[in-house]
Amino acid sequence: MRRAVVTSAATAAGVVLLLSLKPHEATGSAPVISSGSGSGSGSGSGSGTTGAADTTPGRSASPAPATGGGATRKVSGDTVNTRYGPVQVQVTLAGSRITTVDVVKYPTQDRRDREINADALPVLNQEAISAQNAQIDAVSGATYTSDGYIRSLQSALDRAKG
Q1: Residue whose C-alpha is closest to residue 32's, from 40, 22, 42, 24
Q2: Are strands 33-34 and 97-105 parallel, antiparallel or unpaired?
Q3: Rounded to an integer, what distance in angstroms lies between the CA atom of residue 160 and that of residue 52?
Q4: Are 156 and 90 in contact (CB under 8 A)?
Q5: Nearest to 148 by CA among 119, 112, 111, 117
Q6: CA nearest 125: which of 109, 146, 140?
Q7: Count of CB atoms within 10 A of residue 48's CB?
Q8: Which residue has the higher pLDDT, 65 or 85?
Q9: Which of 6, 52, 70, 113 sits at 20 to 30 Å (Cα–Cα) from 60?
């Protein structure tokens, strides 16, 4: 009898633990958060789909040569898994100057994720454009997203150089 009680309690505890896990959903339905065309609008594009650069992060989206002084090209960074979901950026460069940063993947699992990222991602985009590199400060309250953003941005800039 005692063994049955212990087994039942352990099974119940296991079921509760399994049900409390929060799986990450696919972020393909999240709108792209963009820095605009350098104007600082900070609004999302509203597009629910991402371009070809999202599926091939090691390649630039346009065939423009990397050595051209004014050549505009898009380079995607690595998808960085954070505690709350993946983060990936796509950088638009004119020559070696960052003109636009689009966040193509970011956590959107629940309302709080969407709230935090709606505030933090436009700030991170403007900081990256102002700094012209990945050496930017994290946004308070969005530490994990900021870390993923910075790492993805650095990988995109590394790809653009070489």
Answers
A1: 42
A2: antiparallel
A3: 17
A4: yes
A5: 117
A6: 146
A7: 10
A8: 85
A9: 113
Instruction: Place 105 in a pLDDT band, splitting at 50, 70 and 90.
Output: very high
Q: Which helix (H) or strand (E) holds 161?
A: helix 143-161
Cα(72)–Cα(66) distance, integer angstroms? 9
**How many Å apart are CA 56 and CA 135, to the nearest integer?**
25
**Range scoring the smallest mean pLDDT among 68-72, 119-123, 140-144, 153-157:** 68-72
36 φ/ψ sector (left φ>0, alpha ψ -120 to 50, else beta)? left
Q: Which residues pair with 104 in a beta bridge?
A: none
**Would you say residue 58 has pLDDT above 60?**
no
pLDDT tens digits for 7-17? 999 999 888 88
Reported residue count of the chain is 162
Identity of residue 121? L
Measured CA to CA, the distance from residue 69 to residue 138 in angstroms comes to: 31
DSSP-based three-state secondary structure for 75:
strand
DSSP letter at 31 equals P
- Centroid of chain to Cα 45: 15
Q: Is the pTM of this model over 0.70?
A: no
